[in-house]
Amino acid sequence: MAKALVGYRVAVDPRRELETVELRRRVRDLEALVDRLQRDNDQLREDLRQPDVVAAAAPTIAG
């Protein structure tokens, strides 16, 4: 009953809080990396769909 009146308190472990902060930062960094790689991949796919203008204009030697 005393807990209900005072409120439930959880012991705070500073090491665990620091680890949580570091893990959340790492997750954000990894999510940003995944987003960048997906954009790069999409751009490469788009580039592959475009005709190769440089190669098409280059003269070839027919023997």
Write up this protein.
This protein is an all-alpha fold and 63 residues long. The chain is built from three helices and no strands. The longest helix has 36 residues, at 14-49. The chain starts with a helix and ends in a 6-residue tail after the last helix. The mean pLDDT is 83.
Summed up, what is this model?
The chain has 63 residues and is mainly α. It is built from three helices and no strands. Residues 20-50 form a coiled coil.
Provide the descriptors you would attach to this structure in a database record.
63 residues; mainly alpha; 73% helix; rod-shaped
Order of helices and strands: HHH
The strand count comes to 0
Mean pLDDT figure: 83
Low-pLDDT sequence parts: none
Coiled coil: 20-50
Keywords: Coiled coil
Topology:
Elements: H1 2-6, H2 14-49, H3 53-57
